[in-house]
Design a protein that fits this description.
Blueprint: H1 3-17, E1 22-27, H2 29-32, E2 39-45, H3 48-61, E3 67-73, H4 74-80, H5 82-86, E4 89-90
Parallel strand pairs: 2-3
Antiparallel strand pairs: 1-2, 1-4
Helix pairs in contact: 1-3
């Protein structure tokens, strides 16, 4: 599956989750076009239950691509600057 198709699938999952206090990013080797074994996904969240729900949906819907999901609160991301350091790309909704 191409990056564009993964984006479409993630957008579909996000829209169906009805959670507005989340941001989803892709990062890692999958974005660079080099060899990859999994899809690295970052979830930035403000609501723990919403994050758990969408994480479960992503794992279920993209299981054949071995999603590796990192979850951070908005505060943790600011502290770690994970998006900048990992060159993560936001999934546009």
């Amino acid at each position: 599956m191409e990056v564009t198709n993964i984006n479409v699938k993630l957008i579909e999952i996000i829209k169906n989750s009805n959670s507005q206090n989340l941001q989803i990013y892709l990062f890692g080797s999958y974005l660079t076009g080099s060899y990859y074994e999994d899809i690295d996904i970052l979830i930035i969240y403000g609501d723990y239950d919403a994050m758990k729900s969408i994480k479960k949906k992503i794992n279920h819907e993209l299981t054949e691509f071995f999603p590796h999901i990192t979850c951070l609160t908005f505060e943790e991301e600011i502290e770690l600057s994970f998006i900048k350091k990992s060159n993560a790309k936001k999934i546009a909704i």
